[in-house]
Amino acid sequence: MLVPSTDGARAGPAPRKPVLSSERTDGPAAAEEAVPGAPWYRLDRRTDGLRAPVVCWLLTRLVLVWVALAGVGGTNDEAHQLYPAWAAELARGHFPVHDSQWQYPPVAGLVFLAPRALPFLGYAGAFIVLMLLCDAAVALLLARASRGPGRGNHGLWLWALGLPFLLQLPYLRFDVAVTALAVGAVLLLDRAPAGGGVLAALGALIKAWPVLVLIGAPRGRATRRSWVSALVSGAVVSAVLLLTFSHAFSFLSEQSSRGIEIESLPGALLLAARHLGYHGGIAYRYGSFQVSGPYVHGLSSAALLLTVLGFGWLLWWRLRARRWSAATPADAALTAMLIFVTTSRVISPQYLVWLIGLGAVCLVFRDTSQRGVALALLPITLLTTLVYPTLWQPLLDGQTLATVLLLLRDTALLAVTLWSALRLWRATA
Fold this sequence. Notes:
Layout: E1 2-4, E2 10-13, H1 51-70, H2 77-91, H3 108-113, H4 123-145, H5 154-162, H6 169-172, H7 175-188, H8 193-207, H9 221-244, H10 251-255, H11 265-274, E3 281-285, E4 288-292, H12 296-320, H13 328-342, H14 351-364, H15 371-390, H16 392-396, H17 400-428
Antiparallel strand pairs: 1-2, 3-4
Helix pairs in contact: 1-4, 1-5, 4-5, 4-7, 5-14, 7-8, 7-14, 8-9, 11-17, 12-13, 13-14, 13-17, 14-15, 15-17
């Protein structure tokens, strides 16, 4: 805009109004060039290019597929033995109700059946291909979401680099498929909330937790549409599965029987207490290694209470939140997921796939409040892999180093969860 000068001559451009840090910059001005001298870890640098993270994703996935097919590390029992047995039962029209390891909602059965559509690859090979496709879907969603004002490619970088920290595990478990649905749901909540609700419902019918991503749906119509679509689509799919399979919801009875897994925070505390004279053992129950001995029941109840309190805090945050930005749905989803994981009685290593996926969505937005939290997931993931599978047998044998690393991982998760909740509160309430 040009302003007239007092002497009639043509003046230069009018000075721009300075933009305060608290103002939203959703317009083209948000895509400004990099700030000279900005440090490498700052997300205010211009990061529009996708070529480098895409190439990184391709190279790391070639390695991941090779490692998964080779079965390096001895973590291939699920895709090679357990899942094919479940798929055979599901193909006969009923869920594996008599198997104590079956603890999943009914749509998970469709995930286990899907590799049978590619019999020429063998079940394990087809399952790895399926997980690779789900991984590619997450990368595509992050790449598309990273374009535009106020966006960046750091989310795609986190997904490309973070998942390989878990070695072959993501391709030999089915958590990448659930994460793909959750990532899609979060990214749709703002512009297509009904679609986000449908994806969240499908994810919840595979592994329950994706319903948590709806906690950050924008207020008003978006919230109503996302929750109504989630409830309706979940009810319809559940009804179809109930008519098609028998014992579709048998997993509910198995969940109540689970104890404290050794990788959980209370489990790690009890393992550490064994070095101080605690008399407790490790038993294999319901498909996992669990702690047995004194105080187990009390700590299990305490973990459930903390989960309830955490979700109560999320509802309180929802009522008190006043400032909503494009990043808020993703930020709230990551905080909710951290609360769920940290207070869980399990904390299996594949849970980190969920956290990396949601952390990657947060980093798509330049104004996310969870920047440091998402980046902190990388060392936590590395610690997780050191515990499982690297030092798994020493952990079962009670060796000190493995126990210390597990306790360090769980303590870091607890600290990051509190940090995430504080950052979310300050950014919105």
